[in-house]
Specification:
Blueprint lengths: L8 E4 L2 E4 L12 H19 L7 H16 L5 H14 L7 E3 L2 H6 L1 H6 L8
């Protein structure tokens, strides 16, 4: 398992939404960005295909819990979430990607999350 998928930038219709992260230099401060990335990717992939099926709980529940913890807990540690982050990348086969396309619908639908996590689209 690896978190190398975080080295991919997130783009939407040619516009950078989130720049690449260095998976070897991640800190606790990167958790809000990682959380947002996982939600954008999950929403982009699953929204179009989830009708009539359930989302894999082992993937969804941890990222939903991470988002909640980021809003409510003062301290969140990357090491506590590393396994879930790696499992997410493995599940969606994101390893070795250089960019990940997310849907405009997901970016619009999750605009509140950018604001609540204090992240601006395209920030570096």
């Amino acid at each position: 398992m690896t978190a190398d998928w975080l080295a991919a930038s997130l783009v939407c219709e040619g516009r950078m939404i989130r720049p690449a992260l260095d998976p070897f230099q991640l800190t606790d401060e990167d958790l809000p960005d990682i959380c947002l990335r996982m939600h954008l990717i999950l929403d982009s992939i699953e929204f179009t295909r989830c009708e009539g099926r359930l989302i894999y709980r082992d993937i969804f529940d941890p990222i939903d819990t991470l988002y909640s913890d980021l809003l409510r807990k003062e301290t969140n540690r990357l090491d506590d979430w590393r396994e879930n982050i790696e499992k997410f990348g493995d599940y969606y086969e994101l390893s070795r990607m250089t960019k990940i396309e997310v849907s405009q619908r997901a970016v619009t639908a999750l605009a509140y999350m950018f604001e609540r996590l204090r992240i601006k689209p395209g920030d570096t």
